[in-house]
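Q: Can I borrow your eye for a moment on a structure tokenisation matter? Would you mind producing a protein record, from residues through to fold? Write it directly below this note and I will take it from there.
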Amino acid sequence: MNAHDDKPLAGARVATRLPAQDLDRARRFYSERLGLEPVDERPGGLLYSSGGGEFVLFASSGASPGTFTQMAFEVDDLDGVVAELKRRGVVFEEVDLPGLHTVNGIAEIDGNYPTKGARGERGAWFRDSEGNLLGLGEPVR
């Protein structure tokens, strides 16, 4: 980094970290339910790669509050992905809040997608085995 650079993180890679109280349980969930396998592992964590991004599950005695989306996957076919994950035993959150309502686990969100020229987003949420709230999103063009 140049000492005069006024954007020190502009070129940084985003690295999501999710806590896991039981790494073996989390590994089984991500493998059996989501079809993801670690690309690297250490005694205290598992590194996953998906669609050009990476995230880590790390051993933690703390638990996530699960009150907000901690990580999301952008998909091209939300209906198909939700159906397959349900078939694998993933339970989707049902939400009924002002401006956000799910039907069969999927919400239609107008004007809530800030990038990629989309006019909105379709979204769905579920919790992993550790209580982390994960999202799925599909831009609506």
Q: What stands out?
A: The helical segments are 23-33, 78-87.
